[in-house]
Amino acid sequence: MPELPEVETIRRTLAPHLLGQVVRAVQLLTPSVWRGRDPADLVGRCVTALDRRGKHLLISLDGSPAVVLHVHLGMTGRLVFLPPGAPVPERHVHARFSFDGGELYYQDTRRFGYLELLPGGAVDRHPRLRLGPEPLDADFTAGVLQGMLAGRRAPVKAVLLDQHILAGVGNIYADEALHRAGVHPLRPAGDLSQREVEALRDALREVLEEAISARGTTFSDYRDGEGQPGQFVAHLRVYGREGEACPNCGTPVARERLGGRSTYFCPRCQK
DNA sequence: AGACCCCTGCTG
DNA sequence: CAGCAGGGGTCT
After folding, report:
1. A261 has catalytic annotation
2. Global pTM exceeds 0.85
3. Within 7 Å: CB of A109 and strand B?
4. Distance CA A127, CA A225 (A)
5. Which of the following is catalytic: A11, A52, A53, A55?
6. A1 has a pLDDT exceeding 80
7. Is the model's pLDDT at A131 over the cut of 80?
């Protein structure tokens, strides 16, 4: 579920509740979702930062040495902060973190996500966090994207989805960016013209920024850090819209499978 | 690039 | 009942 815009929205909505707060207790209800050091090691530590890398959330806590709680939400993961008295989630709650101002719940219906407690420091060298560049960083230029695509025969969409090459783009935003750029998802990555690479770079940044502004895309499961759904589903142009009119040209949106996943595109606008 | 795996729930 | 779902991993 959560791609870059959703994780960024969760980060922003959790930050005011967690920064400067001390973990008073941790309850791990489903041990299999936990990796790394003992969760009890969190108790007494203060949250010093919330960061995002791609689709990964990194919660830094103080201490000597400091630690980082690494969260990946998979398809259906949620991280929701609730003040005292708020209705308590009941289904698929796997962990609960108590703070003076409320409780942080980790839920995940399908359990594809995980929580991992890492030593602080060079977290980006950790195997699961060896990711490609951030598409919203200022130095993600058309030249950088060109370098990612050059010489590859794989479909351009498959390259966009590869987190080791580019961080944070998932099935929804890959399809949306390719549509905006007018590029067919099955085109061999290395065949794109310079003009197409520039359009794709701009489209990726635009769609990710707009989705963050709309607080993410909610089909069913996704919620932000305060339990609220995102609004970007109303802005989707092709994703999940098989048979509906392309907003550009009116041609029915097509769906094909790529690597076992649905791919939506306009057969007329995307060559 | 594809198949299969992880897991639960919803839809047709 | 089969098929599908925003994540990723591993193995051909």
Report:
1. yes
2. yes
3. yes
4. 26
5. A55
6. no
7. yes
Q: Are strands A67-72 and A56-61 parallel, antiparallel or unpaired?
A: antiparallel
Confidence of residue A228 (pLDDT cuts 50, 70, 90): very high
A12 is catalytic: no
Residue A2 falls in the annotated catalytic set? yes
Q: What is the mean pLDDT of chain A?
A: 96
| R_g of chain A computed on alpha carbons | 20
Closest CA to B8 C1' — which residue? A110
